[in-house]
Amino acid sequence: MTTGTRHGSSQPRLHQTGEIIQKYGTVKQFPLGLSYEARMYSCQRLNKILADTQILYGLYKKHHWLMRGATFYQLHLVLDKHAGEQLALVDTLAERAQTLGGVAVGDPRHVAEITSIPPPGRRGGGASHALATAAGP
How many structural domains are present in the chain? Predict the structure, then answer.
């Protein structure tokens, strides 16, 4: 058995670049009853909501993993349930943006740039505030 860059090698092929199919922030013309401007506006708003939803999913999982105390099991279950609901919303929002001809935000670094949920320790209380806000009154 030989190693290296031959086809069939178990080694990863690093530093590859693929063809960009569609740039983020653009919308393709699909046969929909909506104007380009309406679809662009909708995709921008959907991506902001998608970014917030991805952050909430991560926060629910984080707190799910950190749970301690007498009510551990109950809280562990409820946080996992809410995380699952956020994950379902992530998929629905991303598919809607794609259906409108846009590109759904997926890279966590880009999500962090466009989310309206502040990082922990910044205005509004961070993770705890975001989870409390998501849970409702």
Answer: 1
d(CA 28, CA 22) in angstroms, rounded, equals: 8
Whether residue 8 lies inside any domain: the answer is: no
Q: What is the DSSP string of 113-126?
A: HH-SSPPTTSGGGH
**Angle at Cα 90 formed by Cα 87 and Cα 91, nearest 5°?**
95
Tokens of 126: 């961070």
pLDDT at position 95 over 90:
yes
pLDDT digits (tens, 9 = 90+) for 40-69: 999 999 999 999 999 999 999 998 888 888
More confident residue, 20 or 83: 83
